[in-house]
Amino acid sequence: MKALSQLRRSGPLDVRRVDVDGLLIGPQRDRLVDIAFDGRRIWSFWLMRDGEETDAGMLLTWPKPLRPFLDGVADLTLTDPEHGTVLFEETVRFGTSPERIDIVNPAGRPLAIDKSLKLVETFDTRDAAHVEPLLDAIEEVLGALDKVGVRPFLAYGTALGAIRDGGLIGHDSDADLGYVSDHDHPVDVIRESFRIQRALTDMGYRVTRYSAIALKVHVEESDGLDRGLDVFGGFMRDGKLYLMGEIAVPFQESWIYPLGTATLEGREFPVPADKDRFLTATYGPRWRTPDPAYKFTTPASTIELFNGWFRGMRTGRAGWHGYHKRTVDHSRSVSAVAREVAERHPDLATYVDIGCGRGTDVAWFADRGTAAVGLDFQPYAYEPEAERRADDPHVSFQLFNLLELRHVLAVSAWVARMPGPRAVGCVHVVERLGHRGRLNMLRAARMMVAGTSGTLHLQFLSEKGRDSYARRTGARKPLAPEVVLAEVAESGGRVLELVREHVSDDPESSQVCRMTIDWNQPHS
């Protein structure tokens, strides 16, 4: 947290340059700044913390999600958010367009940069008609959590807004809930979290998981919008409160329970009993001073504890989300693996695509009359195809996390009961996995083809060339075939065929490796 003397520093900023690269500002003490385009706040930053010191001054680089919008004209205003003092204002032009810059999503909804430097719909752009459904969703999920046996409350930014301001924080963009378990051992807290997930699922909610004790509960609003509310689990142990994913501090349970209340946008909601101690544990002793550029500075010891206890099952998820978002308009073609499987297994009854992405191979097999199952870590990728194929009896899509053993075993057992012969394809997935994830993939494939003559057909980047193949496929880095061969042997399988080939006629192009693997034949 910054000292009050820094928060209250007044006077204009010496803005020396504004262009598509960022803002160059003359020497200053650290200070909090709001930046607005045509009167609407777009981004907030701390000058020293978020800037880069150069010989010419402090350079504030535009956040990456904002850069595609920087082509046109805008009235740029820099403001002290505590006092509303204007520090700089000027009409600026970026790029060559004569049009006004309009930072909105495809539906025309205003966007701004949040604390994670993502471009989102923040609460200060939403009117009452958009806030009421959120409040309804908060009430609904709090009630559902109460029914499944925990005592939930508003947490993090939602609690801060209710307790400090009586409303949603304008620069925030989501709703956070929490609970403190009656258990005091991480294993028991994890077991309880999965029980909560099963109970919520039985109640009809769609639930996705951040970690072993943090969930997102999805509520469909009246206009069809999918609203996701974050639910952070916590527990008390040896006089400390552990609340996923930032808090590990000395605490007393009586400071949480019995719960108190606070008003959020005119509605009463549960909050921890000692509001000051809870928000001090979350945001520090100066939590009453608004900071639209606030960033958690979680101690390394807390991160290490939470990583060891609860995290690890979402590694790489954000990267795949970014890849699928970046390539949403790219043309898609059926993989060589899918064509090879179809050719070699003309009697195939079920094809399983591990890491199906947008489901192109799944749809291709279904159109040929073969049952096809698409499994992926990132539902964002396959959801459009799943909606299009909702009435197709040949198609199934399923969330599948190779870093979560429960997924590996349960989903693989489900597939193993499907009609045979079965074959499994896995295209450009293993490059992004570690040793544990690759062994889980091999275990899953072995279970899926068990009892049939089916095989696993694997393709991965084995050599990165002077082309864009790695970026186009999301493979990133090559994986040595020798590593995979050793892991196949470790899994009890054997490689029936191994082919390495360039992806184009250019001898300096990338090289892929394809393997056909089975677990059914005796080893010599």
Describe the structure.
With 524 residues, the protein is α+β, with helices and mostly antiparallel strands. It folds into three domains: 4-114, Immunoglobulin-like; 124-309, Beta Polymerase, domain 2, CATH 3.30.460; 317-518, Vaccinia Virus protein VP39 (Rossmann fold), CATH 3.40.50. It is 29% helix and 29% strand. It is built from 15 helices and 26 strands. Strand 14 and strand 15 (226-237) form a beta hairpin. The chain is globular. This is Class I SAM-dependent methyltransferase. It comes from Nocardioides glacieisoli. InterPro entries: LicD_transferase (IPR052613), SAM-dependent_MTases_sf (IPR029063).
> What proportion strand?
25-35%
How many strands, which pairing sense, and closed or not: the largest β-sheet?
Answer: 7 strands, mixed
N-to-C span: 66 Å
Tell me the name of the CATH homologous superfamily of the largest domain.
Answer: Vaccinia Virus protein VP39
- Fraction of residues in helices? 25-40%
DSSP summary: helix tally: 15
CATH architecture of the largest domain: 3-Layer(aba) Sandwich
Query: How many distinct domains?
Result: 3
Structural class: alpha+beta
- How many beta strands in the DSSP annotation? 26
Instruction: Give average pLDDT, whole number.
Output: 91
From the alpha-carbon coordinates, what is the Rg to the nearest angstrom?
A: 26 Å
CATH topology of the largest domain: Rossmann fold
* Shape descriptor: globular
The CATH class of the largest domain turns out to be Alpha Beta
Low-confidence stretches: 1-10
